[in-house]
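Researcher: Let's try something more involved. This one mixes different molecule types, so please make sure each is placed in the same coordinate frame as the others.
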Amino acid sequence: MPSSPGRTAQVMADIRRRAASRQLGPGDRLPSIRGLARSLGASPSTVAEAYDRLAAEGLIRARPGSGFFLAATALPLSLAAVAPQPEREIDPLWMSRQALDGGDAVLKPGCGWLPADWMPDAAIRRALRTLSRADLSILTDYGSPLGAPPLRKVLARQMSMAGLPVAADQLLLTGSGTHAIDLICRFMLRPGDTVLVDDPCYFNFRALLLAHQARVVGVPFTPEGPDPDAFAHAAARHEPRLYITNSAIHNPTGATLSARIAHRVLNAAAVADTVIVEDDIFADLEPEPSARLAVLDGLTRVIRIGSFSKTLSASVRCGFIAARPDWIAALTDLQVATQFGGPSPMAAAMVAEMLIDGSYRRHLDMLHRRLNRKRREAAASLAELGIQPWLTPRAGLFLWCRLPDNRNATVLAERAFRENVVLAPGDVFSAGRTARNFMRFNVAQMGDARLMPMLRRLLGEVPPYGPPQQPGRDAAGMTATGASS
Amino acid sequence: MPSSPGRTAQVMADIRRRAASRQLGPGDRLPSIRGLARSLGASPSTVAEAYDRLAAEGLIRARPGSGFFLAATALPLSLAAVAPQPEREIDPLWMSRQALDGGDAVLKPGCGWLPADWMPDAAIRRALRTLSRADLSILTDYGSPLGAPPLRKVLARQMSMAGLPVAADQLLLTGSGTHAIDLICRFMLRPGDTVLVDDPCYFNFRALLLAHQARVVGVPFTPEGPDPDAFAHAAARHEPRLYITNSAIHNPTGATLSARIAHRVLNAAAVADTVIVEDDIFADLEPEPSARLAVLDGLTRVIRIGSFSKTLSASVRCGFIAARPDWIAALTDLQVATQFGGPSPMAAAMVAEMLIDGSYRRHLDMLHRRLNRKRREAAASLAELGIQPWLTPRAGLFLWCRLPDNRNATVLAERAFRENVVLAPGDVFSAGRTARNFMRFNVAQMGDARLMPMLRRLLGEVPPYGPPQQPGRDAAGMTATGASS
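Model: All components are placed in one shared frame. Result:
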């Protein structure tokens, strides 16, 4: 077979795809010319020409006598590789980047945070003025590796009052809630380890776990927490290293974990020797505390994480981890090695100030009332379009809704994005991609009068997703196993 | 052989050591009872009893029919495992933790930063008051994934003026300089990859690379940069993925890279296809810019990182990466996945304010003059004790000094620590542990009158290190290869 331009391009595309999907890493040897020719049904001269062209581009390099290798300067570990380029698919990272990137002209009913004008403006400005008079060491030094003692003290007191006694050596401040989970993953996971998540779950868990090269298995979620039988089954079958979940105000559903399911999940995790990360970043939006895995377990195999990004300021960058002292010691070493110090001592001082002077508590009271009202209003507006919440959350920002007539939420989100509206389609939350006609709405970001008419119009335009839902599927439209890798 | 209590304890200690040193990870299967008995020369009943006792402790768990496994709740990936417990050896992490942890009662001539009262007090407080009047979105939102545009614009302009043209999509803000290197390592490295560092180098590079499970190879360092022949040899032999270095005001030596060596290092890196991380966090302390790998290379295979922790405030937590646009895109995704957002927009706004209003430039002028004076004074005081700098740095905080009579710097640091003085002994900077009679002094942290008398007394007490230095070794006391893993 002679070399042909079309075939050469195909072989080049094949190698590029392997590099982008990380089947081939920088420095890895490429298949031999003969071997690849055989497996692709191409001529050796076609493959040789493709390799020469890729070497000229710099993607691969020849080493005399030992073959071709992917260049170190080729794009290595890339999260973007999970989606085709250049038109990036709607995936978890697309979701984060669009929500973060969009300027003021973009409406964001799909984002996961409150509008700036819901935040405690006066309290933050007052805390900054107070900070401008603080000890110089707070303004210039690295601070303690565990994080600023005043904030750690307030947090420990709050947790103890909520039934979770926490000693001083069980609490580490971090740069954010996501950073807290990332440190835990670095500490606990090795590439190929299995991690359980809820299906659906917060979409960035999946991007984060991809960065750790973990295998993600979804457990079907019910209005009271993960399906306990499916959880026990997945735990026994996969012996996962970690399970990551939100117990209070679950993202995206807004569900609350019941004590009954909490108890069963803990027992199944104990049998499988699985560590649980309870991500409580929305917890302060709860008017009354609900069941917590960390409280039942007493920080034996449960790690609690939190932050102030959702309730106070995302600009302040401050999260925390509560865990066993030996784990906190190791996590502190990891944070020093990888960040040289925890969160900004200035940031911790600002947060502590607002927690101590009562402005945070008053702000939360206001948020509860305002979110309750907006949740009712949003549910009523969406109902007019036939968009129904899966459950009525007790608290929080989110309504997890089914689109009418099995409309494809991903296509709807793509069309809305062209009109400068960022929506959050179900599949970015689902490891099993089983929520194609679901959408997460942020009730605090739906005030713009253009939104509902646009949704109504687009609902009429987008196609339904595949066949109608099977009656055997559960209320969230998820498959029986929910497992996917 | 019957089971004996002493032998049982030995077997238990052996398994604990394997877990601590990560030979055994959580979930890993332990050796079979018979196999371990054979290899340790113990009786199977001794090993069985040791396993039962470890299972009762929770370190390991039995799975009926399939043997014993290290428990997931056993201490997994632990950087502390590199040093024996509970009395931790003086290692890179000990160095960081002690320098960060010590309160005001501790003298820190071994730390790597300026005292709080050297920092621009008035400018920081003014920037905080300005910030308290900023747009609410800066005070509450996540900000753009690449980092705040005003700071990125100033940084790009400064780099362009220094001969390194940088486009808007080539600059990413991060949480710190260390965090910048950590992101790059996550992007570039896989466990087992080789990374070149200078011998000696900044000690936290080694802790960071341990967290990435990289193999670290040290290249002997000369007063003009890495030994170019040794670098070319190590690059050719190990084909390292990365080389991490400081070109300006090298840590710990204070050396300045020469243009001649920069050129040779770049060529050797190109042959071996090695990516270079040029850590420039001390660069602003240079009165005149010196040779830079990034400038010669134009951000093809060199990545430049920097931060403001050393020159403005370590509390403000803001670093940056300048690199190829495709790498910046992938690093941005990684930062979103692992931190959800870059540095605090508030922090970036404060830094930008001080860069734009000229207070940073005036502060740097003051720092140059003050450091020059302190460097002369410290060198004179140390000379009285027979402590000689390896070279006289053009700028910066550090004096890298040889102790007289081959005194053991690690023992000296241990004794000083008991007297609340944190010193920085040579070996924490040396991948090859070839700097046992060297010490890094921070000239800005030597003002306390107790320091010199204590050093004089301790120098008389501590033993010399091993045999006298071989004449064949170079001035830094390093071996010819400097390679170590």
